[in-house]
Design brief:
Layout (H helix, E strand, L loop, with lengths): L10 H4 L3 E7 L6 H10 L7 H8 L9 H11 L6 H17 L2 E8 L1 H6 L5 H19 L2 E9 L4 H12 L6 E7 L11 H9 L3 E6 L5 H9 L5 E4 L7 H10 L2 E4 L1 H6 L11 H6 L3 E4 L4 H4 L3 H10 L5 H13 L5 H18 L5
Parallel strand pairs: 1-2, 2-3, 3-4, 4-5, 5-6, 6-7, 7-8
Helix pairs in contact: 5-7, 10-11, 16-17
Length: 352
């Protein structure tokens, strides 16, 4: 089985200012850090060559959501101590800053981080908050957090996580996300707890229209009042849902390479991003799980520009759209969008 290597990225894309709205902490762990944890805790992994297939996508005949989601089962074994959780949080922020991301919304699943050693979820959230706050100040990047819950886990677990989020008085946790196995588990049981989250002042984003159809996007918009949709690329299957999303101005958090690696599309050239933009949908560009897919946001810009033949002007509008769709107060969104747009335009000199 052949490894997927990190793509070479032209400096042009690396220096562009960026906004990332859809990045999972659990999909951002550095492999060298994981190997240090393996050695320190005598985990049953011989070397990096054995570890990579368990936590990163490799070339194979068929990419599937089962294979993609299996990586998280292994990753859950690494959260062995408060120090490790703080370290991986700090490194995720550092990696974003090194990729010239100016504003990051980092989502994480307290239940996943707590399970390996039975940590209380409230403590896990505090550790992530503490580390991200410190890293954001050190690396000069604005970071907000989104609490993620999985649809294949219990509603009670989701309610506990959301109650912890609502208790964040510093408003560093800005939203809640419903993620997990969309193909086999429904969203409907979580509607009440997500309504409670919104009443408490949290924004909502829902993974929908990734492994499920356009009807899941409709449900996220109409039943969950979601401001944003994670992935959502199957929305194009139903023109009525496309019209609904256009009318509401719903922002889609699209992750091109991830959609290929998880089997949602059969190739990157066949990704519907361009059709979504041409249909008037509001789109942002994201990585999803940069370590699992061995990508960066810079490499996604390059892929979208070179492979999908989307112009840099359009990519610039999508970066601004991401800023405008950030889970921030209106004035904060406006300031971020204006700053990103101005800098992006200054650096928008097309390569040969």
């Amino acid at each position: 089985m052949t490894e997927i290597n990190m793509p070479e990225v032209a400096e042009f894309y690396q220096v562009l200012p960026k906004v990332e709205l859809h990045r999972h902490l659990e999909g951002s762990l550095r492999v060298p850090t994981m190997m240090e944890i393996v050695r320190a805790h005598e985990m049953d992994v011989k070397n990096t060559g054995y570890l990579r297939p368990l936590v990163q996508v490799e070339r194979q005949r068929e990419y599937t959501f089962e294979n993609f989601l299996s990586k998280f089962g292994t990753l859950r074994l690494f959260y062995k101590s408060p120090e490790i959780i703080k370290r991986i949080s700090r490194e995720a922020v550092e990696d974003a800053a090194l990729d010239n991301i100016r504003y990051l919304e980092l989502r994480f699943t307290p239940a996943a981080l707590s399970r390996a050693e039975g940590f209380p979820m409230a403590q896990v959230v505090d550790w992530v908050l503490e580390s991200v706050r410190s890293a954001a100040e050190h690396f000069q990047i604005e970071v907000k957090l989104i609490i993620s819950v999985n649809r294949h886990e219990s509603v009670d677990l989701a309610r506990e996580a959301i109650e912890i989020a609502l208790a964040d008085k510093n408003q560093e946790i800005v939203g809640v996300d419903l993620a997990g196995n969309e193909a086999e588990f429904p969203a409907a049981p979580f509607r009440e707890v997500f309504t409670e989250a919104q009443r408490g002042g949290l924004y909502v984003t829902i993974h929908a229209g990734e492994w499920g159809g356009a009807e899941n996007v409709r449900q996220a918009i109409e039943d969950f009042n979601a401001q944003r949709i994670g992935h959502g690329i199957r929305v194009l299957e139903d023109p009525e849902v496309v019209a609904l999303a256009r009318e509401r101005g719903t922002l889609f958090e699209v992750c091109v390479t991830s959609n290929y690696h998880s089997g949602v599309v059969d190739s990157i050239p066949n990704h519907p991003l361009k059709k979504m933009i041409e249909s008037g949908l509001n789109i942002s560009i994201n990585t999803d799980d940069p370590s699992i897919s061995r990508i960066s946001l810079s490499s996604e810009y390059q892929t979208i520009h070179k492979t999908l033949e989307i112009s840099m002007d359009v990519i610039g509008t999508r970066v601004k759209a991401a800023a405008q769709g950030a889970f921030l107060p209106a004035e904060g969104r406006k300031e971020l969008a204006n700053a990103i747009e101005a800098e992006f335009m200054r650096k928008l000199i097309l390569p040969d």
